Amino acid sequence: MAEYDAQHGRPSPAEPELSQAQLDADDVDLQAGLSGVAGIVSGGRGVVNVLHDVAQFAAQAIPGVDGAGITMIESSTDTGQIKAWAATAAFVSDIDKVQYHVLHEGPCITAMQSGRPVVSGSLGSDDRWPRFGGRVARMGVHSALSMPLTVGDEVIGAINAYAHARDAFSEHAVRLATQFAGPAAVSVCNARLLSDARERTENLQQALVSREVIDQAIGIIRARTGVSAEEAFERLTKLSQHDNMKLRVVAERLVNEAVRRARAAARLQP
Predict the structure, then answer these.
(1) pLDDT digit of tens for each residue in the chain (270 aa)?
(2) How many alpha carbons lie under 13 Å from residue 223 in its C-beta half-sphere?
(3) Among 146, 167, 148, 166, which Cα is nearest to 157's?
(4) pLDDT at position 252, please?
(5) Closest listed residue to residue 34, CA positions, set 60, 73, 71
(6) Could you give the CA distance from residue 268 to residue 242 in angstroms, rounded to a whole number?
(7) Parallel, antiparallel, or unpaired for β 118-120 and 81-87?
(8) DSSP state, residue 99
(9) Residue 193 DSSP one-character state
């Protein structure tokens, strides 16, 4: 039996009487989804594209899904901000806005807080989220399945599956979703780590470029005025504050102007 948090006071959906052909088809879809998430992280692709792929594979791997989405906890913030990154259907994005930005309640938030799968078969009557459930039911969405994405002991996000029908996600669907969520969490984590590494590298490269141009500007000021390096840096800083511009931008302008003057002088020489 799959372990998950079901809707209070509502019987779990009866296990569907699936033929062997249907079971085989569900297994094929699951394996396709697992194969997909195992191979999506590549050097040139951004994290947003990777997460959109994971959402698509989730919709394929979990039976009964009409729309799926991926939500991440932004660990770079002190409060652990929740951010929806990907959705396979427009109505999922609408639900995300209601859940994270308007009402701050819903199955995804509950799943990430508890670290357990959360299932609802009738959102409109689910007392766990009295405001969210009724609002989403009026959108014609009645079933939800939220799977926490866990790496080690850390919940990094969630897969959210929605369906228009009531009681769309039986234990069979939860079992398949659980099998999918583990590898998906690893792929999502790897994609985020790769993206963070790229960003740090780019920031470092930009910092090195900025330092180089600032040093050039200091050299120009010293050559023109005969002041020390510290005094030249102080003058550059005052220019930055006066013009309300970043120090790097002021330095670039000064260097570019010096280069322009030098080229003009060279053209005038016989």
Answers:
(1) 468 888 887 877 666 677 777 777 877 777 777 777 777 755 556 778 888 999 999 999 999 999 999 999 876 544 458 887 899 999 999 999 999 999 999 999 999 999 999 999 999 999 999 999 999 999 999 999 999 999 988 999 999 999 999 999 999 999 999 999 999 998 888 877 777 777 677 777 777 778 888 888 888 888 888 889 888 888 888 888 888 888 888 888 888 988 888 787 777 766
(2) 9
(3) 148
(4) 86
(5) 60
(6) 34
(7) unpaired
(8) I
(9) H
Residue position matching structure tokens 């697992």: 34
- Are 118 and 146 in contact by the 8 Å Cβ rule? The answer is yes
d(CA 230, CA 125): 69
Res 265: pLDDT = 75
The Cα diameter of the chain in Å comes to: 95
Backbone angles phi, psi at 145, to 5 degrees: -140, 115
If one counts every other C-beta atom within 10 angstroms of the C-beta of residue 76, the result is: 9
Closest CA to 161 of 176, 3, 23, 131: 176
Q: Tokens representing 11? A: 């019987």
Output DSSP code: residue 5: B
Nearest of 6, 23, 48 to residue 145 by alpha carbon: 6
Instruction: Supply the pLDDT for residue 14.
Output: 65
b/e map of 87-98 (b: 16 or more CB within 10 Å)? Answer: bbbebbebbbeb
Q: Which of 146, 96, 157 is nearest to 117 (CA)?
A: 146
Q: Which domains does the chain have, with CATH numbers?
A: 20-197 (3.30.450.40), 199-268 (1.10.10.10)
